[in-house]
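Lab notes, practical 5.
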Amino acid sequence: MLDQPKLETLFWAFGTIIFIIVGSILVGQMARYIAKAFRLSENEQRKIFWGFLFASPWIIGFIIFVVGPALASLYYSFTDYKLGETPVWNGLDNYRELIMAQGRDGRNFRSAMYNSLYYAIVGVPLQVAAALGMAVILNAAVRGVRVFRLIFYMPVILAGGPAILLAWRYMLAANGGFVNNTLSTLSDNFFLFNWLYRGFIFAVEGFNGFFIGLTKGDPTGPFTFFLPALIGFIVLFSLVRGEWDANKRARAQTTIEIIGFVVGGLLVAVGLMAEPIDPSWTYIWGVMVITGWWINTHRGQLSRAKIWQVAGVGLLLLGFILTLITPPQDGLPEDKSAYLIPISIALVPILLTFGKAIDRRVFGASIAILIGIVLVRVAPYQLLDGKADVILRYLTLQTAIIQPDNLDYLNKGYIGSYMDASGLFIALIGILVIVLLLTDNRIRRYILIGSCVLFGVMAVSSGIDGVRYFGAHETLAQAEGKTNFHFARYRDATKEFPNNDQDPKWLTSDLWVKPSLILINMWSAGAGMLIFLAALKGVPKSLYEAAEVDGANRVQRFFKITLPMISPAMFYNVVIGMIGALQTFEAVYILRNNDTQTSVMSAAFYLYQRTFEQANIGEGSAMSWILAVIIVGLTVMQFRYSNWVHYEV
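Output from the prediction step:
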């Protein structure tokens, strides 16, 4: 006799089989009815029925195990839900805490996101370079190359295993580890390697010390203005050189789109996270949609322009509906017209883009009204009360640090006294729009030269003032006899050049734990190596022979022939590597310890920790959706700006 648990198991097994069979038949019949509604032939209807019948087990599984949990997670992200308790709707509170880094959990998530971006921005290029280097080496026609290919690929099979990661913990040990012993031996026996080794330690510790200061939220003062000013100078300088042509026009349009998307997206996020929600985000979103539609239309990319239109209208309508159905106690005032009217106003110019014959005056007036509303709402907070003085001070090479002997002013008062640095990006966008609209090349060139000089002076002046800002913290700490905690790890790492006894503390120091993980990923770059190797095999030898006849050396042949021809493989490895870096989990889980957990913690690991170890389902769901939006956004941008990829026709 079968006992009760076995009978229940058999019952559920047979029930699952029957459910799949019945569900597959229903899906097939539904597909057949849809085909019949489109007046397809009887033969086509039969093919569609059988196709969906056999595909339905996967379709049903996808809906139950992927779409269903995803929708549940989206709902939980708007609730205060801890495992074992009843979910309580809290609106945007989870997102507000995480995005605005409020409280301990918000600060931890910000730090984890910074670490994930570090793995993506620093680690992926190094991993791709390692894969390409191995592929170039193994592409040589030498005896036994297949054995070497196997050796280089073995880490891919082994790297993900916990045993290998634990082995890396022993090899990267600060005292007696294989890696440090090898590096120390080479440093002792080769003078040049010794200097390179010590310089490497100094550079890595300095860079990571500064990065740790950023993740902790240490104020950067004038350097906040230095980066946008430098980016503006570089962009404008690239447009000043040479004659104005189609390539420069495309470059200006791309710059407007990228900076507008990033800055506008951040402003929209800040508006949504404000409490109560700031209606300004609707106008900013409208300007973003119009800009994206205009650029893609002028490029002849009508499908992308249509996406901007549909996304713009869809999100505004969704916001309109949610505003209507959301109860007032969830942060909305009783008079919902404060949100409904801005949404309606932002919809008007977007809807005008759907018209076939648009009156330019009406359309231009609508855009001007939108931009004017944004400026009227933002200007009083950003330009009045002396907040714009920082621009005049830096353009006249003056310091903007009014109270260098006041620690509270240095940490909070400086940045609060002046306009937001994103204003420089907005100014850059405005200059580029004017340049694109002008038809007189002489006036266009004068504007570019003048703007380039202004941004250059701004960058130099704010950079010098940034050095003064860091020095003011140090001087103030010395005068009071206190420890200077402003970018303390960076100051400790760069106060003197490493001596001969100093070795990397790979897994025990917050300065080295992230480079350790990147080193392991570079060691296991064999998958990317195989893709590059296949691409290298596909490059026609006739191209190299023709270039050699023309007198091109190896370096020229590599950059002019090899890289363009393998660019599809490069693009694939970059996209996959970026997604993988943002989802880093296993290595963090195994290599972390109590001293380095915060420094190595990725967004995916903190999501796991907050959801499964601390049972906060609501906050964990919000983290997963934020991470998903970032991954999708970065991936879309990579595909959007993949003009450097050359595909064979």
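Observations recorded by the TA: The first strand starts at residue 79 and ends at 80. Residues 441-480 form the longest helix (40 residues).
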